[in-house]
Design a protein that fits this description.
The chain folds into two domains: 1-39; 46-178. It has helices at 2-37, 46-49, 104-107, 111-118, 166-175, and strands spanning 57-58, 66-75, 81-89, 92-100, 124-128, 131-137, 145-151, 154-160, 177-178. The protein is elongated, with a radius of gyration of 26 Å. With 182 residues, it is α+β, with helices and mostly antiparallel strands.
């Protein structure tokens, strides 16, 4: 009789242990799923987000092969906010600056074309999932390449550390997403 009671107790302890392990495993799994589903992919630091007055194009935190860092918020002479940050893609660094598109681009016929010809000396375009990247060189940049997107109500200027090919520009442009400023 003593052996039967011992086995019954051991069996009950084993069942409870297995139940505790199962419940703990399920609980941890639920926590991971909730954290994964609701994770914040917005790379803009929260303190900058609260002061940002527009929804910018950025590379999300979970992007593969492109990292973004060094986010800064500044103001132009006219008071317009400028969001700047750095991208690391392949072996290159790309400095990105963006702001709300000035009204001249929609109010003045042909303004966009004159800007692309006179300001960035556009020589090529790259079609991406998020719009067109116009490639050119700024007159004051000693012939350095620049990419400009005039999309979604934004002006996005991208200056690479070295000249990028069209495939790399498309790779960058395809990965942008709009994020809410706050």
């Amino acid at each position: 009789m003593n052996i039967i009671n011992k086995r019954t107790i051991q069996s009950a302890v084993l069942r409870r242990t297995i139940m505790i392990i199962a419940i703990t495993t399920i609980g941890i799994g639920i926590i991971f799923v909730v954290l994964w589903v609701f994770k914040d992919t917005n790379p803009i630091p929260k303190d900058l987000r609260t002061n940002l007055s527009f929804s910018p194009l950025v590379i999300p935190l979970d992007s593969i092969q492109i990292n973004s860092r060094d986010y800064e918020l500044s103001k132009a002479e006219d008071g317009a906010q400028i969001l700047s940050y750095n991208l690391e893609v392949k072996n290159y660094e790309v400095i990105v600056s963006e702001y709300v598109q000035p009204p001249e681009f929609t109010d003045i016929t042909g303004y966009r074309d004159r800007f692309l010809t006179n300001v960035i000396a556009q020589h090529a375009t790259v079609q991406t999932a998020n719009g067109t990247i116009y490639l050119g060189t700024l007159s004051q940049s000693n012939g350095e390449q620049i990419g400009v997107m005039i999309e979604k109500g934004l002006m996005v200027f991208m200056r690479p550390s070295a000249e990028l090919d069209e495939m790399t520009w498309r790779f960058i442009g395809d990965r942008f997403v709009i994020v809410k400023g706050t």
